[in-house]
Amino acid sequence: MKILCLHGKGTSGAIFRSQTSSFRARLADQNIEFDFLDGPFECSAAAGVDLFYEPPYFSWWKNDTVDDVRAAVARMNEYIEENGPYDAAMMFSQGCVLGSAALLLHQEETPHLPALFKTAIFICGGPSMPILEELGFHISATARERDGVSRDALMQQSGNSAILTQGANRWTGLESLNDGLSEDQLRKEIECPFRIDIPTVHIYGSKDPRYASGLHLSAICVPERRKTYNHEGGHDIPRGTQVSDNIAELVKWALAE
């Protein structure tokens, strides 16, 4: 089986390979080929990344606009056509934005073409709000405001200073950021004219400033075909034994669907 792997902004395919090494080691008997791509645009490191990883760092687009996201989707589709097919996509942060946009656009605009993937694994990422709006999704004003605030909070809590002075304790203040809403309440902030209709896995952390965004992404996927897992951490992939075991089992479930 082949899995296309899409990294987060300000990282790289090599960094995403390292970030996922713990749970991927538990999949060694599954005969999986992981294809880790680099985004086309070199950029500065994501907050805190340069403490642990050397450059270069990449992004999938320069601006979070409909045109830029659509261009990134087109580039990815060309890559899939040349190097696929792929059984699944595994994505982190901005990679989730790219992958979910590709799935939505394919489902809405080119459903007659073969499916991009049979299943998708989203880690600490949300959807593209500009793409959702273009496709007729309704996003509440509260969710839109929180999206901007949470991006700022992520920059602050993921930065080098926060890591060096506070470590894991830097993920704070999120209950007020999310207005104390439950997972189901946060999902209802987006009204969906249609949903991603393949099996999906959604891995997120309740201490992540972008936690609500991860729930919004799960909301635009068919509930009966999705599995969710809260690793209870921040905007990262914990490498502890229990979390790695759980994520590996979710990957196995997705590939078996």
TrEMBL record:
GO terms for cellular component: cytoplasm; nucleus
Entry GO MF terms: hydrolase activity
Alphabetical list of InterPro entries matching this protein: AB_hydrolase_fold, FSH-like_dom, LovG
Keyword line: Hydrolase
Domain of life: Eukaryota
Gene3D superfamilies the UniProt entry points to: alpha/beta hydrolase
Domain Serine hydrolase: 1-245
A Pfam match: FSH1
Alphabetical GO biological process terms: antibiotic biosynthetic process; monocarboxylic acid biosynthetic process; secondary metabolic process
Protein name, entry field: Serine hydrolase domain-containing protein
Protein species of origin: Penicillium daleae
